[in-house]
Hints:
single chain, mainly alpha
Amino acid sequence: MAWGYLTTVFFLATVKFMFAPAAGRTFDLPFWETFMACFAGGTFGAFVFYFSSELIIKYSHKKKVEKHEALERQGIAIIEKKKFTKTNRFIIRVKRSLGIYGICFWAPFFLSVPVGSIIVAKFYGKLKKTFPLIILGMGINAMITTLIAYIF
């Protein structure tokens, strides 16, 4: 067993889940080892970012308010950023069309595990079934992407 390669795939899956199986294939890891490393890494990343998302969101808001107050004290005009970017519109469209299942399954996969987990927690964090759905999505996505990486 190549622990260094497995660790690399694990940590790659905690951040950018979609590309981790290709790394396992590049390292010549067996299919099941790649699948398990991707699944475990994605689940670990989702756990960390999902359950710390409230702190991350509060910290981000606090820093934004401090920045605005500092600019006001200096007399610099505050230029507001766009609220409806293409990414935000895409996320809302997915939320409306696919609901909780679409966000839980696909946001961590397509965006990244940290961003996707925070978005899921922001939209559906109060529901108890949200995190188990993320884990189910990680398992399904890990199986599909690992199969694709090893077939092609």
